[in-house]
Design a protein that fits this description.
InterPro entries: AT3G44326-like, F-box-like_dom_sf, F-box_dom
Pfam families: F-box
Shape: globular
Mean pLDDT: 78
Low-confidence stretches: 1-5, 8-12, 292-296, 318-324, 339-348
Number of strands: 14
Distance between the termini: 88 Å
Order of helices and strands: HHHHHHEEEHEEHEEEEEEHEHEEH
Number of domains: 2
Protein name: F-box domain-containing protein
Structural class: alpha+beta
Radius of gyration: 28 Å
Helix content: 25-40%
Largest sheet: 6 strands, antiparallel
Amino acid sequence: MSFSTQPPFSSSTATTILEPPIATSLSTIHPDILQSHVLTRLDGLSLFSAACTSTELNSLASHRDLWTNICHSTWPSTNTPRIREIISRLPNGSRSFFSESFPLTTGLRANPQRNYGYPSELISAVDIHYKNKPIFSKVVETETSSAWFLCSPFRIDMLDPKDTCRTPIPNSGTEETCHDLVGDLSLSWILIDPTRLRSMNLSSHKPVSVQRHWLSGEVNARFATVLAAGERGSASECVQCGIVVTWGGGAQGGEMDVRGVSLQVEDMDGVFLDGEGSLGIFSAGFEGKKGMSGRREIEGRKRNKVDMERKRDAAAQRMPYAVSLVVDSRGNASLRHPWKELKKGEGR
């Protein structure tokens, strides 16, 4: 028996298989494939980024149907007759609406000599998502020209007091429910001026706080945006647009309902603005600049924290009893400022 040392395939008989060349240019891909199978899978921010890479992609990414689908998937409330009619009047349709409504509004320092003009009507398009799935969508139209609205405290309610909206959110009956909602809940409140075709998003996207009421057991999720729109040094130099979503109902282990969704505006003194004052803030906000949309919840929490600290300091300055005279056992007198001591203790 003998064994051959010759390899079964020698180098002289080896065959090299060449792979087909891989396309390295977008020009080799049919535009219909890019538009139907690639761009339709992108969200709004990714589509904006793709449009900046080449002339070809910019043209494909400007297709109205793409942005219409993105608006409807991001905000189901935009697929209502009134909102669709407003979007149809914009220069670039849904693309213009998305560019104004998606980023966080940072506000504009109002010029007292400039008349921004008050809108005669406000439209609120509100969408709530839980774990990236829509659970609440509604559009409410608010008339703003009546004397009652201008003089009364500003407030927009998306639900009547007797109405509720069933949700799939479980009620554990513990603080775990509040903790989970911070990460799983998101909200968009788009305020629209249908006359001037302007819009802005008043929500921090993610909750700035979620708390359970100790008596009723209801859970309040708060969203907030701080606008810098008033005169410097005034109480309305910065105002907070606070959105509160109230959850309740359902026994422990069941599912909770949305019982209330409301918007109010308060100044640095904690005073709620009336309709006329709020319209002035919104008119300036419609003309304001927009922040980084990818950091909406971070910016919202940061501005909410700064606003609360400024309101706390302002309240301390208005309290004459915040400074007291203290005399020790040796008869030495000193001034005590409890508010300053509280602030020092917060840093520990």
